[in-house]
């Protein structure tokens, strides 16, 4: 059994971040899709999707409900927004057969794009509507069929905790639970309470029990495990706990995981998996950006201020030229 060690996040950021090569075409630096955004939540999918672009992905899509789409589009013309998800209230008058037709249509809309994506982020601002979550569980099956990696966060974790088979033994799944989401996962999967005294061993057991998926447990230090190795990232971030920082993280993991996967085909393939590298890089960068934003804005630091600092924080670690 390997022991926990503090990851060298800066060095990993330098390793996984690709150079800006003029020979590369649009799309090669990453095509990310966020599955999330409903009547209540439009900020979370926006934060995840825009963070992916600000770090350096080429294209960032959002698949959300019809009500959320115009709102998310209005935040940014950079995002490609698909108003395809349906909640129960909009289909409750339909017969069972018509509801199935609606579900097939939703799945068709997502599936026609699936193979083009390097990574999905499933859950920021998804909500907990049962019809919508059933569609999303089928989207996860489609992603697995196409071997597309996915990061599960927010309400996606609510779905997965209640249907662990959706991610069990899928090596390209990354779960990014916050304190509440982690507690629910531990209770459900390990049948016990969170043990802070043995946090690393418990995280390793949890990841192993879910068949070697990668888990990034967010907190004062971020802990990352795939059931074998356990790494921590404790770089000083910010004392502000404004909502949305986890959404930046999930979009960032998707980009760095995609970049780390590209290294696999190169001559110097790192020993850690792309999922572990992606988590370490994202955690390190978010913490640097949060620290920079806090230096400028102090108590009024908001998630959008942290997003504005992603570029400078990455530039300080690996300059573009
Ligand atoms: N600006 C935005 O748009 C942002 C949107 N965000 C989005 O918010 C969503 C929830 O994420 P979160 O982080 O609030 O979840 P978390 O800490 O487990 O819950 C806190 C407490 O609330 C409750 N609860 C939560 N959701 C519930 C529901 N649908 N229905 C009923 N209860 C619910 C929960 O109760 P419990 O389930 O534990 O009993 C717990 O006590 C998620 O989609 C996220 O992406 C955030 O990313 C922030 C920025
Ligand atoms: N106590 C803490 N001290 C320092 N950093 C923290 C602390 N808690 C969380 N973080 C950092 O903030 C990031 C987001 O974690 P958080 O627990 O706020 O996620 P979340 O609740 O899912 O956020 P969101 O509001 O986006 O849903 C993590 O990557 C972590 O690095
Ligand atoms: Mg969250």
Summarize the structure.
This protein has 321 residues and is an alpha/beta fold. The chain has helices at 9-16, 43-55, 68-75, 88-91, 96-114, 130-145, 155-162, 179-190, 199-209, 245-263, 274-297, 303-317; strands at residues 5-6, 31-35, 59-65, 80-85, 119-122, 150-152, 173-175, 214-217, 222-225, 230-233. The chain has a ten-stranded mixed sheet with strand order 1-10-9-8-7-6-5-2-3-4, sandwiched between helices.
Features:
binds adenosine-5'-triphosphate, binds magnesium ion, binds ligand NPW, 12 helices, ten-stranded mixed β-sheet, globular, alpha/beta, 321 residues, UDP-N-acetylmuramoyl-L-alanine:D-glutamate ligase
Q: Report the bound ligands by name, code or SMILES.
A: ligand NPW, adenosine-5'-triphosphate, magnesium ion
Indicate the mean pLDDT.
Answer: 96
CATH homologous superfamily placement: Ribokinase
Q: Total number of helical segments? A: 12
How far apart the termini lie comes to: 41 Å
Organism: Camelina sativa (False flax)
Enzyme class: lyase
Catalytic activity: (6S)-NADHX + ATP = ADP + phosphate + NADH + H(+); (6S)-NADPHX + ATP = ADP + phosphate + NADPH + H(+)
InterPro entries: CARKD, Ribokinase-like
Describe this structure as you would to a colleague.
There is one protein chain. The chain has 321 residues and is α/β, with parallel strands linked by helices. It contains twelve helices and ten strands. It has helices spanning 9-16, 43-55, 68-75, 88-91, 96-114, 130-145, 155-162, 179-190, 199-209, 245-263, 274-297, 303-317, and strands spanning 5-6, 31-35, 59-65, 80-85, 119-122, 150-152, 173-175, 214-217, 222-225, 230-233. Strands 1-10-9-8-7-6-5-2-3-4 form a ten-stranded mixed sheet, sandwiched between helices. Helix 2 runs parallel beside helix 10 (245-263) and helix 11 (274-297) crosses helix 12 (303-317). The relative contact order is 0.15. Adenosine-5'-triphosphate binds at residues 154, 178, 218-220, 222, 237, 241, 243-247, 249, 283, 286-287. Keywords: ATP-binding, Lyase, NAD, NADP, Nucleotide-binding, Phosphoprotein.
